[in-house]
Amino acid sequence: MRKMMLVILALLLFRGTSLHASSQKAGEKGKEAAPAGSKSASAPKPATTDPTYIIGEADMLDINVWKESDVSRTVPVRPDGKISLPLLNDLQAAGLTPMQLQQQITEKLRKFLTEPQVTVIVTQINSQRVYIMGEVNHPGAFPLLPNTTILQLITTAGGFTQFANTSRVHLVRNENGKQTTYSFNYKEVMEGKRPEQNLTLKSGDSIVVP
Prior knowledge:
single chain; alpha+beta; wza like fold; Outer membrane lipoprotein wza fold like; five-stranded mixed sheet; three-stranded antiparallel sheet; 4 helices; 10 strands; about 25% strand
């Protein structure tokens, strides 16, 4: 009887050891699937994917150098149009596309690193803004996303209030040093009568809703 109890105890211990080893292997396999330093789980969301977007003052940039966490940074574009990075100090960013800045950083890092792999992502667009005022639910300044139209900005601002005169909305734009006004009739645009009124916005445009 005692011998049988010892056999059973030995079997239970062996089973527990096997389960522990299997669990440990599974954990190690999970670590291999998601290597340390991987940013896939917390990768920054780009504010724009437009390859022609021009970086401007106050934009936020996520600059990632693969396997070089000491060089990778999230940085703002300063009023002078430059950013600061370890090893490289000050770099001109304003006036460049993300791809152009990425190439510039890659080229300069070759003096310090072997085959640097750089990505540049615009995470916040603060340099290009449009404004909407008057009878909308949320008047104010908004970041200008690529291809935003008058109608889309009105929607972003929460739509019209009950007092809005939707047939006399107008866009105010500075062109070549002069102020130009464009009319926008919400009802006509929604009915498809004069869709050309729904202009694509430019940085600095103001929408006035009386």
